[in-house]
Each structure stands twice: as structure tokens, then as C-alpha cells.
Amino acid sequence: MIDIEVKEGSAEIEVAEGVFFNPKMKCLRDISVAFLNAIGSKGNSLIDCTSATGIRGIRYFKEAGISGLTLLDTNEKAAKNTLKNLKKNRIKAVSLNIDLEKFAAGSEQKFNIIDLDPFGSPAPYVRDILKISEDGTIVMLTATDTAVLCGAHSKACVKQYASAPMHNHLCKEAGIRILISYFMRKASEFNFGTELLISISDMHYMRLFLRLRKGAQKAYDSMMQTGFGAYCNSCFSFSCMPGIAPAISSVCHACGSKTKLFGPIFLGKLNDKALAGKMLKEMDESGCGYKTISAVCKELDTPFFYHLPTLTRKLKTSSVPFHKVSEILEEKGFICTRTAFNESGIKTDAPIAELLSAISKAKELR
Ligand SMILES: C[S@@+](CC[C@H](N)C(=O)[O-])C[C@H]1O[C@@H](n2cnc3c(N)ncnc32)[C@H](O)[C@@H]1O
Fold this sequence. Notes:
The protein is of the alpha/beta class and 366 residues long. Helix content is 38%, strand content 23%.
């Protein structure tokens, strides 16, 4: 069987039969390279815990100046394929056919940067990557169990992430906030605080870019950025309750109906916009990754959003364009942006009553 030859970025690789390679994830690999260049990772050590063909490590080495590169894969064919590709790209690196859990249990080495891109959930591997982390370690991790995080299998979410998900238009944002809070809780057990740098939810994946900070106070501060959310199925507003044991009300603050509670979730900012801006400078404007990071730069930082079609249905009216509603709210001094989590969503600091009135006014002006 002939291996498939692939050129991606500066890497030239062969994909052996039985080894995972998804060309559609080029976009996310481009974003990861831009991230490493934006934070200035030249000369740092990096471990790709789930290398498959080795494409990530090879690109990080060639395009972001990584020096000490280690690649792991539990699949023998993948580890062999990685070795072959390292040779093809003339890169000296450590490539091991080993399970991450076993490697982390026996490793004395700590890494500056860790990439984790497993099949499905990263949850079973988080403790392993924390074992090979130190103060300042950058973690890039992918989750593809989005159906679980987005509440299609809510019992699985409770089991895997110890969190109650949402299963409506808020599900993707709630899902990524569940993933972040899960990571923070595990990091805290290892006495690490977590700085969230960039978070992306796109296609079938979620990806987090984080920095670990050693120290009890830092771990405590991260934990205090988590909390719970409440969603009202009657008036469609939402609220957030920060803290580990906050006073949780299941009564909607806007209409008095019973709300649905979800969480624990992360309640802080999902992106460091200055860093996202630096990433854009590292990227090709015509690439799909550019679009993803531009959207991140434009989005309001507050948690959650309203869904225009749900609100127009409530008002028993036809659809209304985003720009008309946002113009009316902005004239009143409110901030409105789109959200990367839902193309019909509106993120705003306006209360629900103001938003409903802006929708009605937008309809009158037509
Ligand atoms: C989704 S693929 C990685 C794709 C790769 N990052 C890329 O961009 O092409 C997941 C890889 O993780 C490997 N893997 C799964 N469980 C593992 C474990 N416990 N330790 C190390 N590797 C593992 C699989 O064999 C597979 O090659």
C-alpha cells in the first residue's frame, strides 16, 4: 500500500495506512502555528502527546522555531509514520510509541508547550499533561466530543465533566465553558492556576490555548472564575452566578419563571483579544483560520447571547436583520456584536426588555 503524500505549511509528510490524518484540520493547525508565533515560542520545548503522522510537531518545529520536540503515539503504525516523517523533514526529535499515561507517569521532564489532540474527549488525559507541566507551561488541547459538551448526551457530560450542559442555542458556548472549568478544576488539584488565552469552537471541535501558573493563590483565583448559569425557557434571558457555592436562584430575574440551571462553567473572558490580534498578523488573510480568529477579536466579552429567531418567534413576528436591531440598541448606548457560537445570535449588554423593544422597533421601521 502506497502512503499518501501531503504538503501542508512547511511540512511534507506521508500518511501511512491506518494512521489518522484529517486534511480539514489544516485550519486549526494553521491557528496553532500562528498562536505559537504570537506568544513567541522560539527555542521552547514542545511535546505532541498524540502525534499520528507527526504533522503538528513538524509544522511547529519548522514554522514556529520549536527546538526540543517530543512526539508520542500509542499506535505503533502512527509512531513509525511519525519517525519516517521526521526524517523526511530532516528534524531531530524524540518519537516514542507509548501511551501518554505511561509516559507521564515515568517522565522527569517538564515541557514548555504541550499539544493534546486525542480522539473524542481530552478529559482522561488532563491529569497526565499536568504531571509534565511547570510554571508557565502552555497547553493547547482539542475536544471533539462536542455532542457530549453540547448536551446531546447530558448524562455523559455529567459523568465525564461533572457538569450539567445546555442543549439549545447556548449549547456551544456553555460546552466550551464547561471544558474550561473542568480543566481549571483539575489544574487546581495540581496547584496550578489557569490563564485562558484563546478558545475556539468550530465545526466538530473545541480548542483551548491555556497558560499554567504555579501557586495556591493562582489556583484559587482560577477556581473563583467558575460558577453556574441559569436560562429561562419562558422569556429566553439568562444569568450567571460566579463562585464555587454561590446563592443560586432558580427564579428568572426578568420574568419570575423557573429557570434551568447549568454548570459548573467558566465565567471569565474567552479570549485575550490583544493576543488574537497578534495571531491575525501571523496568518494569511485568505485562510479559514483568519476568519475564525477575526470573529474572536470582534466578539463582546460577556458570557452568553440572545437568539434572534427565538425572540422573533416569541413576539410572533417574522425575522429581523441583526444590523437593524444592533443599530437601534447602539443608538441607546448599548454594545452589540455577533457571536462565533451561533450565526443568529446577538451578544449585548442590553437587558432582554430593551432587546425585545429594539426588535419591535426594527419591524416598524421596515
Ligand atoms: C486525532 S489523532 C491526532 C491527530 C494529529 N494531532 C493531527 O493533527 O493530525 C489522535 C492520535 O492520538 C493517538 N492516541 C490515542 N490515545 C492515546 C494515548 N493514550 N497516548 C498516546 N497517543 C494516543 C491515536 O493513536 C491517534 O494517532
